[in-house]
Design a protein that fits this description.
alpha/beta, Helicase, Ruva Protein, domain 3, Zinc Finger, Delta Prime, domain 3, 3 domains, 5-stranded parallel sheet, 18 helices
């Protein structure tokens, strides 16, 4: 292996015994592990945050299977590429009785027609599909593909799992082969700051070696990691997870937690207007007339923010956030809306009664 390749690439496990984490999915005696070891895998979709092992599992399957292994990237491949792979897969199955395993990274980036092109070959068994996605597959992947595949949701690595990965990197020849000494507390610090992402952990270790050298103390690690930004994709799954956490903590009247999630979004570059929009909706949907002042305060804070901007505008965001969390909650408006819509949809006649019409008919 190229010694100049990134550490995360050099350390990618080739067997399940070297794979760390995701025990509930690929631990001893799990159905997926047995299927990989016995080379009887059916189509699967691996979903989860970056650095949780989706591509690594696909590579392990590539090493373990006797099937023809082919890989496409949804960013650079189109329907033509898919059809070529499917045609070759059918030919292999017909002439040599050999299966084809097709790994598609970032499968959520395929549009509907591209995903539909896979269906006939997946359904006939000519292709065993392995899809990897950082998005929720039930929203981003064709339901027909989902129904023909096993979906495995990979979780962020635990700190223990990341510590094991870092220690392996320090010890094995593909990594630093024992030539780098790193204090145990420094390993813990790097693992804790990696947000469950093994690739981030290994990149941080590699950066530490490049900047600090072959002896890394806890103080060195803390200094290096001080400015490390948190993972937050404004257009990805973490965006929706974080705003969900923000709304749920407002709903739970936990002002401290709500401020924490709000500042995660702010410091990651989220548009403050997006946060204000969500708070305005919350003020009406979850508080309503239980505290009518909530909506007034949010709109006033939003107006003040537009006049002042950042960084002082954080005061208006924080004031609105804290008020919403502490306000009395009430869903009477939401319930009334739902009941009204239900009544309309039930087919009830909405003929306006005579006494409510614009002009009352006079008796002759």
């Amino acid at each position: 292996m190229d010694s100049h390749a990134p550490l995360a690439y050099r350390l990618r496990p080739l067997t399940l015994d070297d794979f760390s984490g995701q025990e509930e999915i690929v631990g001893k005696d799990t159905p997926l592990r047995k299927a990989i070891e016995q080379d009887i895998l059916s189509s699967v979709i691996f979903a989860g945050p970056p650095g949780t092992g989706k591509t690594t599992l696909a590579k392990i399957i590539a090493e373990a299977t006797k099937a023809n292994f082919t890989q496409l990237n949804a960013v650079t491949s189109g329907v033509k590429d898919i059809k070529e792979v499917c045609t070759q897969a059918i030919a292999l199955k017909t002439s040599m009785k050999q299966r084809t395993v097709l790994f598609i990274d970032e499968i959520h980036r395929f549009n509907k027609s591209q995903q539909d092109a896979l269906l006939p070959s997946v359904e006939s068994g000519s292709i065993i599909l392995i899809g990897a996605t950082t998005e929720n597959p039930y929203f981003s992947v064709n339901s027909a593909l989902i129904s023909r595949s096993q979906v495995y949701m990979l979780k962020p690595h635990t700190t223990d799992s990341l510590e094991a990965i870092l220690r392996r990197a320090l010890e094995v020849s593909e990594g630093y082969g024992g030539k780098v000494q790193m204090h145990q507390e420094a390993i813990k610090k790097v693992a804790a700051m990696s947000n469950g992402d093994a690739r981030i952990a290994l990149n941080l270790l590699e950066l530490a070696v490049l900047i600090i050298g072959t002896k890394i103390t806890r103080e060195d690690a803390e200094k290096l990691l001080k400015q490390r930004s948190m993972r937050y994709d404004k257009k990805g799954e973490d965006h929706y997870d974080t705003i969900s956490a923000f709304i749920k903590t407002l709903r739970g009247s936990d002002a401290s937690a709500a401020l924490l999630w709000m500042y995660k979004m702010l410091q990651s570059g989220e548009d403050p207007n997006f946060i204000f929009r969500r708070m305005a909706i919350f003020a009406s949907e979850d508080i309503g007339n239980a505290d009518p002042h909530a909506l007034v305060l949010v709109t006033a804070a939003w107006d003040a923010f537009l006049k002042v901007g950042l960084p002082e505008g954080e005061y208006f965001l924080s004031q609105a956030c804290a008020y919403l969390a502490s306000a009395e909650k009430g869903d009477a408006v939401k319930v009334a809306m739902a009941q009204t819509k239900s009544a309309i949809e039930s087919g009830t006649s909405l003929e306006v009664p005579m006494h409510l019409r614009n002009v009352t008919l006079k008796k002759i």
